[in-house]
Amino acid sequence: MPKIIVLKDDREKVGYTQTTLGAAFTIQTTRLETGDYTIKGMKDIFVIEKKASWNEISVDFTNKYIKNTDAAFRRLAAIPYHIVLIHDTIQGMRNVY
Q1: Distance between CA atoms of 54 and 68, rounded to whole angstroms?
Q2: Residue 46 DSSP SS3
Q3: Nearest alpha carbon to residue 88 among 67, 58, 65
Q4: Which of 51, 73, 74, 78 has a beta carbon 3.0–4.6 Å from 57's, enabling a disulfide?
Q5: What tens digit of pLDDT does each residue of 23-78 get?
């Protein structure tokens, strides 16, 4: 069975690894215009925007970063199948508030 090729943005700081995703996947690092992950050949229809924590996403919506965040979410909204994945715990969410 052929492996699924996951494209990972080269700016992704704390990302998924080959070990995280498992044997069915191969990760290739490249520059993505939108999102942090996609499947090779699907970047115009499917992307994942990964946030490492609730704190990261709350900071993204502050005055300092809101223009970049707004532009990123507008690009994301133009992709038919998009996911915002917050990789954190419920405790992490509680710590933000």
Answers
A1: 18
A2: strand
A3: 58
A4: 51
A5: 888 999 999 999 999 999 999 999 999 998 888 888 888 888 899 999 999 999 99
Choose among 46, 40, 43: nearest CA to 4. Answer: 40
Q: Which tokens hold the place of 21?
A: 């995703």
Q: At which residue do the structure tokens 């050949």 appear?
A: 41
DSSP character string of 81-92: EEEEEE---HHH
Residue type at 28 in one-letter notation? Q
Q: Which residue has the tokens 């290739």?
A: 28
What is the CA angle 8-54-31, rounded to 5? 20
Burial class of residue 24 in the structure, from the number of CB atoms within 10 Å of its CB (0-12 exposed, 13-18 middle, 19+ buried): exposed
> What's the sign of the alpha-carbon dihedral 88, 57, 26, 74?
positive
What one-character DSSP code corresponds to residue 62? S
